[in-house]
Write a structure and sequence with these properties.
14% of the residues lie in helices and 32% in strands. With 1273 residues, it is an alpha+beta fold. The relative contact order is 0.10. It contains 24 helices and 68 strands.
Length: 1273
């Protein structure tokens, strides 16, 4: 190996062992299968490299963090048609000829690449002072084994976090750097994250996690640091302080203390007297610790400790009870958590004893606190390896100033008075409306009393207070003076009148309950009231009854007839009673003599009942007194539940029904009477000269006259409709005054009935004042609010319904309605005198309108057939006939007029027609013959000729109504004809409409349907173009497209999109294909170029020119396009071009080189840390051949079959390549190929010599350049 030492030989061997990289292009699909690519799927496989795309070559087995300035890459293509049937290969020229096909040029672009540093750093020192010097931060001292940056973060040891992820350590943003190995630096951590506002907590243990990265860079000089692993971060520093100082095993230090230097703060929450001898102080500390409290007398006292006895000199001993008989303390395990200290004794001045606090007395409170820092730090179950007991210090205690200030904030606290008064009731008296309670209390205070219905729930204390029947009581010793509490009502409901009281009810049993409280004592917050149990269970519960000396009062609520033989009277009574009512149509002449009114009314009890069917006199109206009374114990009510279950209650509506009456009759004499349930009943009076709620005569005047109801519905006596009819008009009569309503529905709608509410919503109605009077209802739509009227030429079912004009007791309309069954019954044949019901089916609404012809489209179907698509707006028949646009022996536009248009179109020699079964549905009429003028013969339409189209239509009204299966009883044949029926059986369109329709259609031209024929094509090509010579059998346009050989044929649209075309007008035309396709991008004129040295299939498509009147040209079919296929290969005279993309080290022993080549090729790369000393291309080839001779992958410079200025290189090769004196004569072709790859550079041969071997060439317009056997530039 010339120019290489043994070390470089080893590098070459490492390179060669990697073998070569095979880069494929699309041409590989068509050449031999040796390259492993024969299908597009194989080419597109992710396992293959492709031309003009990045491919990666990895050179491995290198040394870490070492410069490699000599990286060479080489390529040769896969052509076999160059000079000597060899590939086109890259050159090596260090003197000149720089370019994409020069190995030396690619080496210059690659430059020097250094392999990476991939070893992470390690700590050589990692210490934290424990406990810390300050109470809000920790200081970490560290060193690394190489330059780098360390990051640290803390987390509370009691947080439950078993580790910290690296990203969280980084987010804390506490870091420091070192510029060399084993240099110490510090990181101060005063918060969980540097952006936090809260410092670290004193008297807390923290776990410290540290992580580092080195200062390594990548090939581009950009940072590519190596990071400590998560496992290293999670590994403890060690087990002794020595490990932290010189040999850390990891980055984790557990349980480091932040020192506590601050005394606790006492936070006052509240104080309260818990009893007559105990005071409770509630407070908090801002950290764990212990709190002591001690009560003192506010004023100077010679016997017991007062406030002046506690001073700055003795406050700790006095408060903690260090020398006294009692101590009041609480441990505070958690900061900011309430603790309660209860004190119940005051200490003597001599500290020999203590006595209970006094009732209703003032006391001052002093408190003292200390934290538990020293116990907490030294007694911790877990300590860091850095912990030093000498750093701990003593516990922190509050100062005298805070003790004094805290006592001032608490102030004086007063013990309680907790004893309520007792109540003694002496007597209770009543009237009909009041209850008076005589009582006295055991101390000065206030008494309240309330009356509730006997047996009802005991009132709550708040309810007794809300009733507000109260009297103040003043206690005198030894003589007492009773007071009266007068109860004037039941309760005081909240409404607009604050003075209103619900009155007591006469003759009613009540339970009396009383409540009392004492006056507010000095310093107390609330008075002492008797308990609810005292109110409800003591002897204070009394049962009393109010008096009843009054007859029942009756209130009239309403009266009305509820049926044709019944009247209901609604009334109320104000107490428990029985009630009777009676009704007469004439005056019964009642009187008060011998209770005549009572006897007469009770005598009608057989026709009097409540609305539950109970006869009057057999049921009670109950009041609350019935639960507990003994006067009428057989009323069946002895409990609140039984009372609530009764039907009628006092002061609530009671319904009395008087029955057995005559329909639609006035009853002006309706009397009602009641008597209460006392042992001697109190009865209503009868006095025509007086008024009042206890007077039967007064109730009669209030009730007045009531008429029983009319409850019989009306019926039709006439219901007639003209059929067929221009407008549906209903003539009707009723058997009484009333209103009739009618509605229609299409007979074909599928509705078998209409509900009454549907008929009413249509709102077609008329009113008659009485029987025998005609009414008329005209129905113009389904509903009167519809904009759309009824459809002519359709059958409708007509439903009619009526209501009478009856009213109720109050004169309000209470009509009687025809039933749904009557409505659904057919009228029958006697519809003029005695209809059976309200339904008339199958009434025809006459069709008066000719159909409208609606033009949709017209088109030529073939070269002799036209199609007219149209619609009618109703069922019917349509006829069409073609006509010549100008005068002609055949039927033309001048031959039709208003007198003959029906005959010419409808009864022509050849008739074209369609039945139209549904309106607004397209129908197609096809015409292919035209009549002569006489209408006796027809001839086929001509190709590419214009025609006018006449169409005529009539509806099927007469057939439709006459032949209908179902008809109404009103139907008459004489009603069928219309004004628009002349010669047929339907309404006919006019000549004006026929002529206008013809004008809308316009002229329609028959088609030319034959595409051109494409004759066999001829192909020629160069490197970038394919020329197609083609001819057609008629004038037209030809498009051609080239696709890769054996790819799918392009679609017709794809051929048109490439837009390589030429117009044919009688002689051969040439289509020049300059690209593969035209992708859509920002540049509309961009073409994807053809690829040199590639096989292509060529396909062509053609259309004729657009004929006159035609809409589209005739194009050949896809199957014809496929038959035009021919194959050609573009030329390839160009050596492969290599593009350097990037080079970088990807590992400590690997370099990645990213390249591109512009065609299918084989590629090799190698790297040396020292110069391999290539002197020329022969040297490079020799070096490579020596290391891999069997593969023959490094060849001498390639040969090309391209001509040099008209002189074929193959001729030179044949004549001179085997001549020993011209051993290097073929180098000229490689040099020519070197620049010929760029289309902008051209060369011409000047001379060729055998001795010395060399070739003189000249770039056009420049000086000559000589290529010799030494292969100089």
């Amino acid at each position: 190996m010339r120019g290489l030492d043994s070390s470089r030989t080893a590098a070459v061997l490492r390179f060669i062992a990697a073998l070569s990289i095979d880069i494929g292009d699309l041409d590989d699909l068509e050449d031999t299968t040796a390259d492993g690519l024969s299908t597009l799927t194989e080419y597109n496989s992710n396992d293959n490299w492709r031309f003009n795309q990045d491919f990666d070559i990895i050179v491995s087995g290198l040394l870490e963090q070492t410069d490699y300035p000599y990286i060479y890459c080489y390529a040769e293509d896969d052509e076999t048609d160059g000079i000597g049937s060899a590939p086109n290969t890259m050159i090596f020229d260090s003197a000149a000829l720089s370019g994409a096909d020069n190995v030396y040029t690619i080496w210059q672009g690659t430059g020097t690449v250094q392999t990476l540093d991939e070893s992470p750093p390690e700590f050589t020192t990692l210490m934290v002072k424990d406990p810390s010097d300050q109470n809000d931060r920790l200081v970490v001292t560290f060193a690394l084994n190489e330059p780098g940056t360390a990051y640290c973060r803390v987390t509370r040891s009691d947080s439950g976090e078993a580790d910290l992820r690296i990203n969280r350590i980084l987010s804390a943003n506490y870091y420091a750097s070192v510029s060399a190995a084993n240099i110490q630096n510090t990181i101060t951590i005063d918060q969980l994250e540097s952006r936090d506002t809260k410092s670290l907590y004193e008297a807390s243990q923290y776990d410290v996690y540290c992580w580092a990265m080195d200062a390594a860079v990548n090939t581009q000089g950009l940072p590519r640091p190596n990071y400590m692993t998560q496992d290293y971060v999670d590994t403890p520093v060690g087990t002794t302080l020595a490990h932290a100082q010189t040999s850390p095993s990891g980055g984790k230090t557990l349980n480091v203390w932040v020192k506590d230097l601050t005394p606790p703060t006492m936070i006052f929450v509240s104080t309260e007297a818990l009893s007559e001898d105990t005071i409770q102080i509630t407070l908090q500390l801002n950290e764990p610790g212990t709190v002591w409290c001690m009560p003192t007398l506010p004023a100077t006292d010679a016997t017991y400790m007062d406030s002046a006895d506690i001073t700055s000199a003795n406050f700790k001993d006095k408060i903690t009870g260090a020398s006294g008989p009692v101590t009041f303390l609480q441990y505070v395990p958690l900061a900011y958590t309430n603790v309660d200290v209860a004190v119940d004794r005051v200490v003597r001045d001599d500290s020999t004893a203590a006595t209970l606090l006094s009732r209703e007395s003032n006391y001052n409170i002093f408190c003292f606190a200390a934290d538990d820092w020293d116990f907490e730090a030294t007694g911790a179950a877990q300590q860091s390896i850095n912990f030093q007991t000498a750093n701990v210090g003593a516990a922190n205690e509050v100062l005298w100033s805070e003790v004094s200030s805290f006592s001032s904030v608490v102030g004086q606290v007063i013990t309680l008075d907790l004893t309520p008064p007792t109540i003694q009731i002496n007597s209770v008296s009543t009237t009909e409306t009041t209850i008076t309670v005589n009582l006295e209390l055991s101390e000065t205070g206030t008494a309240w009393c309330q009356a509730v219905r006997h047996g009802f729930n005991v009132p709550t204390i708040l309810e007794i207070l809300d009733s507000n029947f109260t009297t103040e009581y003043i206690h005198y010793t030894p003589t007492t003076v009773p007071v009266d509490v007068q109860i004037l009502g039941y309760d005081r409901p909240r409404n607009w009148d604050n003075t209103y009281m619900t009155p007591l009810v006469l003759g009613t049993y009540y339970d009396i309950y009383c409540y009392a409280d004492d006056d507010l004592c000095d310093g107390c917050k609330v008075t002492n009231g008797v308990s609810f149990s005292y109110v409800s269970t003591s002897a204070n519960q009394l049962k009393v009854r109010t008096l009843d000396l009054t007859p029942p009062e009756m209130r009239f609520i309403a009266a009305e007839s509820i049926a044709h033989d019944q009247i209901i009277i609604t009334l109320q009574v104000d107490e428990g009673a029985k009630v009777w009512c009676a009704a007469w149509s004439s005056d019964p002449v009642l009187s008060a003599t011998a209770q005549d009114y009572e006897v007469r009314i009770k005598a009608e009890a057989g026709t009097c009942s409540d609305n539950l069917g109970n006869q009057c006199g057999t049921f009670w109206v109950y009041d609350m007194d019935d639960i507990v009374d003994v006067i009428n114990a057989d009323d069946g009510v002895a409990s609140r539940a039984e009372y609530e279950a009764t039907n009628w209650k006092y002061l609530r509506d009671v319904d009395i029904i008087v029955s057995g009456l005559t329909e639609e009759t006035d009853y002006p004499y309706i009397y009602c009477y009641a008597e209460d349930d006392e042992l001697t009943p109190n009865k209503m009076i009868f006095d025509s000269a007086a008024t009042g709620p206890s007077n039967v005569h007064t109730m009669w005047t209030e009730i007045g006259t009531i008429q029983t109801l009319d409850e019989t519905p009306p019926s039709f006596t006439k219901l007639a409709i003209t059929d067929p009819t221009d407008v549906i008009s209903v003539t009707f009569q009723l058997n009484e005054a009333g209103t009739a309503y009618c509605r229609t529905t299409l007979s074909i709608s599928g509705e078998t009935t209409l509900l009454i509410n549907q008929i009413l919503s249509a709102n077609f109605y008329a009113e008659v004042a009485g029987p025998g009077v005609d009414g008329q209802i005209d129905i113009t739509a389904l509903e009167s609010t519809d904009a759309q009227g009824l459809y002519e030429g359709h059958q409708y079912d007509v439903y009619c319904w009526a209501k009478d004009s009856a009213v109720d007791t109050h004169g309000r309309a209470r009509p009687n309605y025809m039933t749904q069954t009557y409505l659904e019954t057919d009228v029958g044949s006697n519809f003029l005198t005695a209809p059976n019901g309200g339904r008339t089916r199958y009434v025809w609404l006459k069709d008066l309108t000719p159909p409208t012809m609606i033009f949709v489209s017209a088109e030529a179907l073939t070269d002799s057939k036209l199609q007219i698509t149209l619609q009618l707006d109703e069922p019917g028949t349509v006829w069409c006939q073609p006509a010549m646009p100008t005068a002609d022996p055949l039927l033309d536009v001048n031959d039709l007029d208003a007198s003959n248009y029906i005959t010419k179109i409808k009864t022509a020699n050849t008739v074209f027609f369609q039945y139209v079964h549904e309106p607004y549905r397209n129908v197609d009429v096809e015409v292919d013959y035209i009549d002569d003028d006489a209408g006796t013969a027809s001839s086929l339409l001509l190709s590419e000729s214009p025609y006018n189209i006449y169409c005529f239509a009539e509806d099927d009204w007469s057939f439709q109504t006459t032949l209908s299966v179902d008809k109404s009883p009103n139907w008459l044949a004489a009603n069928v004809p219309t004004p628009n029926m002349t010669v047929g059986n339907g309404n006919e369109v006019s000549f004006i409409a026929v002529d206008a329709f013809m004008a809308s259609v316009g002229q329609v031209i028959t088609l030319d349907l034959t595409p051109p024929t494409i004759n066999p094509i001829t192909l020629s090509s160069d490197e970038t173009n394919i020329n197609v010579t083609v001819s057609l059998d008629e004038t037209g346009t030809v498009w051609c497209q080239a696709v890769r050989k054996d790819f799918n044929p392009p679609t017709i649209l794809e051929i048109l999109d490439t837009n390589y075309y030429s117009h044919y007008s009688g002689s051969d035309t040439t289509v020049e294909i300059t690209g593969y396709d035209k992708p859509i991008n920002y540049e509309p004129n961009y073409e994807r170029p053809l690829v040199l040295g590639t096989d292509y299939d060529v396909y062509c498509y053609a259309t004729d020119d657009l004929c006159i009147g035609c809409r589209v040209t005739n194009g050949v079919t896809f199957s014809t396009v496929v038959l035009t296929k021919d194959t050609i290969r573009t030329k390839d005279y160009t050596v492969p071009k290599m593009r350097f993309v990037a080079a970088e080290s990807i590992a400590r022993d690997k370099i990645l080189v990213t390249l591109q080549v512009d065609e299918g090729a084989m590629v090799w790369c190698a790297a040396w840390s020292a110069d391999p000393a290539f002197t020329d291309s022969t040297d490079a080839e020799t070096e490579r051949d020596a290391d891999q001779e069997p593969a023959k992958q490094l060849r001498r410079w390639p040969r090309s079959s391209k001509d040099l200025l008209g002189l074929p290189v193959t001729a030179l090769q044949d004549a001179d390549c085997d001549n020993p004196s011209l051993a290097h004569g073929d180098f000229a072709t490689s040099a020519e190929r070197r620049w010929a790859a760029g289309a902008a550079i051209e060369w011409e041969i000047v001379s060729f010599a055998a001795t010395p071997p060399g070739l003189a060439v000249r770039r056009k317009g420049q000086l000559d350049r000589i290529f010799t056997g030494q292969r100089s530039g």
